[in-house]
Amino acid sequence: MDKLIVTGAGPLDGDVIISGAKNAALPILISSLLVDGKLTLSNVPHLQDITTTMSLLGYLGVEMEIDERMNICADASHVNQSRAPYDLVRTMRASILVLGPLVARMGHAEVSLPGGCAIGSRPVNLHIKGLEAMGAKVVIEDGYIKATCDRLRGARIFMDMVSVTGTENLMMAAALAKGTTVIENAAREPEIVDLANCLNAMGAKVSGAGTSELVIEGVDSLHDASHTVISDRIETGTYLVAGAVTRGRVRARATEATYMDAVLDKLSEAGADITIDGTSIELNMHGRQPKAVDIYTAPHPAFPTDMQAQFVTMNALANGNSKVVENIFENRFMHVQELQRMGAYIDLEGNTAFIKGRNKLRGAPVMATDLRASASLVLAGLMSDKPTVIDRIYHIDRGYESIEEKLSRLGANIRRIPGHVWDKDPSLQALVQ
Ligand SMILES: CC(=O)N[C@H]1[C@@H](OP(=O)(O)OP(=O)(O)OC[C@H]2O[C@@H](n3ccc(=O)[nH]c3=O)[C@H](O)[C@@H]2O)O[C@H](CO)[C@@H](O)[C@@H]1O
Ligand SMILES: C=C(OP(=O)(O)O)C(=O)O
């Protein structure tokens, strides 16, 4: 297995180009299933999750062309499968998003219960309840969600928890339903708005995206369209925190500050100078140690759970004490144990991490347990006095495009060691003895 080795190398300084948003690109790519024609996408990030989604769509009969700049043309004219097997959906949570489009388009879907980051139990009851309200008959058998319906019909759906993929699944299903669907307590994330914009470009009638009431007037069919995926606000936030942790200066380019109020607000509170100029966001610490900040995760526009782990690392390296409360997922503190191995002072009590900041951490062999946890370990390695060897980095490759190249360009000391090189090199192995 590949590993990352990160060694502290002083303040980061430079520009980083932000990729398209994973969590927008995945539902949008999957929305191609709704069209008897072509969806052409640009600004798609080069990530393992995109490859996984393309394999799944290919299996379902979507023909795909991709160029070297990651422009993807998905042609779903010949979709001939409505079963998404375990092997293709087990590594990625977003695979559940084929459920709504397949029932809407084919009248039938069988989707294996999905995997993804092990950050909580992550049920899909709201996806199922919403489809049932639209007239689908749904059973769970042998690990598969099996849904059937001749034609979905519009319905009034109340989501009793705010669910991002739940809202997306139902929005896509409702686009081809007969009649009008209203989703109450819908998620308001920028990725929801991006999906709605893409669906509307295909001829759907979605309004209210970005508010908690979505109205979708079903249409009989959708048509060819092109769409550019929005920038990744979580990748942006991660590089800005890298700048904060190392007391440096990082300018994130090709991004969008309006998606990021909660995160930018906390970085300012931590003592960063933040300058927004068009599609660039610059963070400058002027050599200062960040100040500890309290964090409470909640659905957008509040502080995103996908930035919690990175802020735990920042607080572990900050001046002062802080608490970080995780309100979305019940098991999203697995990075804490690894950060403790690196010398971080963190006490965990239920869904709250109590953190006492310190100047530096100590490099250690650590294990990536999920996507953002992996990022938090890389950030910790940037301020450690010995090499940090991060194992199981396939998690990070799900969501960060070329992370070692982007960080190296900012001045970080980070190397990817392919598994076969690691296995044959005792000097590398000595780093974890
Ligand atoms: C591919 C993608 O976009 N992933 C994001 C998406 O995940 P995902 O869409 O899976 O997360 P949800 O918004 O659905 O989850 C929010 C909360 O609702 C609960 N819930 C959800 C669905 C359901 O049917 N029943 C239920 O109880 C979940 O257990 C969780 O406690 O939003 C999360 C919250 O911002 C992010 O961390 C993930 O990066
Ligand atoms: C949790 C995440 O991804 P997923 O929902 O695909 O597991 C994430 O992007 O942080």
Task: Lay out the secondary structure.
Elements (H helix, E strand, L loop, with lengths): L2 E5 L5 E5 L4 H9 L7 E5 L5 H13 L2 E4 L5 E4 L7 E2 L1 H4 L9 H8 L1 E5 L12 H9 L3 E5 L2 E5 L7 E3 L5 H12 L4 E5 L5 H12 L3 E3 L5 E5 L7 E4 L4 H13 L3 E5 L7 H9 L3 E5 L2 E5 L10 E2 L11 H9 L4 E5 L8 H8 L3 E5 L2 E5 L8 E3 L3 H11 L6 E4 L2 H4 L5 H7 L3 E5 L1 H6 L1 H4 L4
Parallel strand pairs: 2-15, 3-14, 6-7, 10-11, 18-19, 22-23
Antiparallel strand pairs: 1-23, 1-24, 3-5, 4-5, 7-9, 8-9, 11-13, 12-13, 15-17, 16-17, 19-21, 20-21
Bound molecules: uridine-diphosphate-N-acetylglucosamine (UD1) and phosphoenolpyruvate.
Structure keywords:
4-stranded mixed sheet, binds phosphoenolpyruvate, 24% strand, alpha/beta, binds uridine-diphosphate-N-acetylglucosamine, UDP-n-acetylglucosamine1-carboxyvinyl-transferase, Chain, 24 strands
Name the ligand types: uridine-diphosphate-N-acetylglucosamine, phosphoenolpyruvate
Please, how many domains?
2
Report the span from N to C terminus.
17 Å
**Strands across the major sheet, in which order?**
22-23-1-24
Low-pLDDT windows of residues: none
Per CATH, the superfamily of the largest domain is Enolpyruvate transferase domain
Binned, the helix content reads: 25-40%
Average per-residue pLDDT, rounded, comes to: 96
- Can you identify the CATH class of the largest domain? Alpha Beta
* CATH architecture call of the largest domain: Alpha-beta prism
- Number of beta-strand segments: 24
CATH topology description of the largest domain:
UDP-n-acetylglucosamine1-carboxyvinyl-transferase, Chain
Report the C-alpha radius of gyration, rounded. 22 Å
The biggest sheet, with number of strands, parallel, antiparallel or mixed sense and barrel status, is: 4 strands, mixed
Beta-strand percent range: 15-25%
Catalytic activity: phosphoenolpyruvate + UDP-N-acetyl-alpha-D-glucosamine = UDP-N-acetyl-3-O-(1-carboxyvinyl)-alpha-D-glucosamine + phosphate
Keywords: Cell cycle, Cell division, Cell shape, Cell wall biogenesis/degradation, Cytoplasm, Peptidoglycan synthesis, Pyruvate, Transferase
Protein name: UDP-N-acetylglucosamine 1-carboxyvinyltransferase
Organism: Arenicella xantha
